[in-house]
UniProtKB/TrEMBL annotation, chain A:
Its EC number is 6.3.5.7. NCBIfam families: gatA (TIGR00132). The active site is at 76 (charge relay system), 151 (charge relay system), 175 (acyl-ester intermediate). The keyword Magnesium does not apply. It comes from the Bacteria. The keyword Transmembrane does not apply. This is Glutamyl-tRNA(Gln) amidotransferase subunit A. It comes from OM182 bacterium BACL3 MAG-120507-bin80. Heterotrimer of A, B and C subunits. Allows the formation of correctly charged Gln-tRNA(Gln) through the transamidation of misacylated Glu-tRNA(Gln) in organisms which lack glutaminyl-tRNA synthetase. The reaction takes place in the presence of glutamine and ATP through an activated gamma-phospho-Glu-tRNA(Gln). Residues 23-462 form the Amidase domain. GO terms for molecular function: ATP binding; glutaminyl-tRNA synthase (glutamine-hydrolyzing) activity; transferase activity. SUPFAM superfamilies: Amidase signature (AS) enzymes.
UniProtKB/TrEMBL annotation, chain B:
GO terms for biological process: glutaminyl-tRNAGln biosynthesis via transamidation; regulation of translational fidelity; translation. This is Aspartyl/glutamyl-tRNA(Asn/Gln) amidotransferase subunit C. Allows the formation of correctly charged Asn-tRNA(Asn) or Gln-tRNA(Gln) through the transamidation of misacylated Asp-tRNA(Asn) or Glu-tRNA(Gln) in organisms which lack either or both of asparaginyl-tRNA or glutaminyl-tRNA synthetases. The reaction takes place in the presence of glutamine and ATP through an activated phospho-Asp-tRNA(Asn) or phospho-Glu-tRNA(Gln). Keywords: ATP-binding, Ligase, Nucleotide-binding, Protein biosynthesis, Transferase. NCBIfam families: gatC (TIGR00135). Pfam families: GatC (PF02686). Gene3D superfamilies: Glu-tRNAGln amidotransferase C subunit, N-terminal domain (1.10.20.60). Belongs to the GatC family. Its EC number is 6.3.5.-. It comes from the Bacteria. It is an enzyme of class 6 (ligase).
Length: 490, 95
């Protein structure tokens, strides 16, 4: 039962074929069997999950039809969860028990979801491999020597290995789409502002966006229906009419105009991924789509602009961790400045400190115009590239990543790792919605196809992804977990 | 561009981070590598481009000036490393 989709589990629960308690216990058993190897969860909430499951079963008996009633979910550990440890993958929050729930968590709970626990992630969402987590790297269920991607690596690994039915993640430069691609699952980054950021521990506020990691596009639509919506507590959340993201799933793709950016099929792309994505696009052509090449001339500059804007915003956001109000404080500070400096230096990991330094430098007196303002100008050029492309096409398709999941400890420096996000990062600068769906295998590892649509056109994305999943079965492939576990012992 | 040890120490101080002498060189290298990646931006002429601060150029929303939060001081202060009588305690700043 645990391998089923959210849609299938909902039907099974409604038909009385199983109960939320049975289902929750089955996921807890799977976690007990595999989390030690996968390290997908930082915190597992077995008792409260079973209590929530009992409450869900009672609510169903009393007539409730909440959309996620009784379905077990995992939240990325940067969503604040009241009464539950919330670390953001950092030592500096190793003892932080959140006093409130993030809006996303609240909405999932109101929809009846059962929280199994909190998933592993790169520290403060800064990374593409999960290796910067203070709690150790999560592993890729397809191959334990490989990374699950990041920063939402724990969420992706948990969904892929059936350690939950669905998970939340956040995406600042690719942190939902890239781990979804590496783990062979479906991930959606909504348009900026579509989902409330309240209670998400901030990395880069003008780029951060929450979204679902799950098994199918159909599930992603169900989850987005619950997550999306304006929130008074997040002034950047967008007030749009309520939309049913499931409504257009079955629309025909006849006449759909697909753009393939030539910059995303260029040097640096693994040739086997190139072939896999082109044959995936051919499947969409069979469904009536028409394909043309498009030009995103400023693609190369997106990474440069991102590594100014994101660290600049991070340096401001992370100034709140000072050892005064919550979180880690160093031992025996000699004075206030020593306390700030040592609490932060001992509490943050290397990558986080590096980004704080970059951001502080870019914002410091004399450098603001050359770095931050310049990056914001490039940001507009990147956005205009996409706007121009969308005058000619309905969706833009390409690979999610240039290569499949890489080996643990194989990235020799930060810059090499940053370049892994070359196809995903521009969407965050432009605020656009994007998805990654499984589109094949290279060297036994899953790879992802990225689909991008106009501002707020998530329904179109989900439609294309769902239709693709009706004629392919890449998303139904499962990693052989017991074999994987054996490999590790040997 | 490559940062000097003095520059690293200055930035670290602005960011309230402690960098030891031995770490400074490694930090300078790590930060300089990233600045190398960033400097690709400088090759593009952006003189007539308006900076984009928000992906949809949205402006800040306003709401009525009303109290919406409840007082949870005691509960929130339980999270502090040190607090007393409703105050956060830090090392002595004034002799």
């Amino acid at each position: 039962m645990i391998e089923k989709t959210v849609a299938e589990l909902s039907a099974a629960l409604a038909a009385g074929e199983t109960t939320s308690v049975a289902l929750t216990q089955a996921y807890l058993d799977q976690i007990a069997a595999h989390n030690e190897t996968l390290n997908a969860y930082i915190t597992v909430c077995a008792d409260s999950a079973l209590a929530q499951a009992r409450a869900a079963d009672e609510a169903r008996a009393a007539g409730s039809t909440a959309p996620l009633l009784g379905i077990p979910i995992a939240h990325k550990d940067l969503f604040c969860t009241e009464g539950v440890k919330t670390t953001s993958g950092s030592k500096i929050l190793h003892n932080f028990i959140s006093p409130y729930d993030a809006t996303v968590v609240e909405r999932m709970q109101a929809a009846g979801a059962v929280m199994l626990g909190k998933t592993n992630m790169d520290e403060f969402a800064m990374g593409s491999s999960n290796e910067s987590s203070y709690y150790g790297a999560a592993r890729n269920p397809w191959n334990l020597d490989r990374v699950p991607g990041g920063s939402s690596g724990g969420s992706a690994a948990a969904v892929a290995a059936d350690l939950c039915a669905m998970a939340t993640g956040t995406d600042t430069g690719g942190s939902i789409r890239q781990p979804a691609a590496f783990c062979g699952i479906t991930g959606l980054k909504p348009s900026y502002g579509r989902v409330s950021r309240w209670g998400m521990i901030a990395y880069a506020s003008s780029l951060d966006q929450a979204g679902p990691l799950c098994k199918t596009a159909e599930d992603a639509a169900i989850l987005l229906n619950v997550m999306a919506g304006v929130d008074d507590k997040d002034s950047t959340s967008i007030d749009l009419p309520t939309e049913d993201f499931s409504a257009a799933l079955n629309d025909s793709l006849e006449g759909l105009r697909i753009g393939l950016p030539k910059q995303h099929f260029a040097e640096g792309l693994n040739p086997a991924i190139d072939r896999a994505i082109r044959s995936a696009v051919a499947e969409l052509e069979k469904l009536g789509a028409v394909v043309k090449e498009i030009d995103l001339p400023n693609s190369d500059l997106a990474i440069s602009a991102y590594y100014v804007i994101a660290p600049a915003e991070a340096s401001a956001n992370l100034s709140r961790f000072d050892g005064v109000r919550y979180g880690y404080r160093c031992e025996n500070p000699v004075d206030l400045e020593d306390m700030y400096k040592r609490s932060r230096s001992e509490g943050f990991g290397e990558e986080v400190k590096r980004r704080i330094m970059i951001g502080t430098y870019a914002l410091s007196a004399g450098f603001y115009d050359a770095y931050y303002r310049k990056a914001q100008k490039i940001r507009r050029l990147v956005k205009e590239d996409y706007a121009r492309a969308f005058e000619e096409v309905d969706v833009i398709i390409g690979p999610t990543t240039p290569s499949p999941a890489f080996e643990l400890d194989s990235m020799k420096d930060s810059v090499t790792m940053y370049l892994e996000d070359i196809y995903t990062i521009a969407l965050n600068l432009a605020g656009l919605p994007g998805m990654s769906v499984p589109a094949g295998f290279v060297d036994g590892l899953p790879i992802g196809m990225q689909i991008v649509a106009k501002d707020y056109a998530e329904a179109k994305l989900l439609n294309v992804a769902h239709q693709f999943q009706q004629v392919t079965d890449w998303h139904k492939q499962k990693p052989a977990l017991s074999t994987a576990a054996k490999t590790k012992e040997a | 561009m490559a940062l000097t040890k003095t520059e690293v120490e200055k930035i670290a101080h602005l960011a309230r981070l402690h960098v030891t002498d031995t770490e400074a060189e490694e930090v300078a290298k790590g930060v300089s590598d990233i600045l190398g990646l960033i400097d690709k931006m400088q090759s593009i002429d952006t003189d007539n481009v308006e900076p984009l601060a928000h992906p949809f150029d949205a402006v800040q929303k306003l709401r009525p000036d009303a109290v919406t939060e409840t007082d949870r001081r005691d509960e929130l202060q339980k999270l502090a490393p040190q607090s007393q009588d409703g105050l956060f305690l830090v090392p002595k700043v004034i002799e």
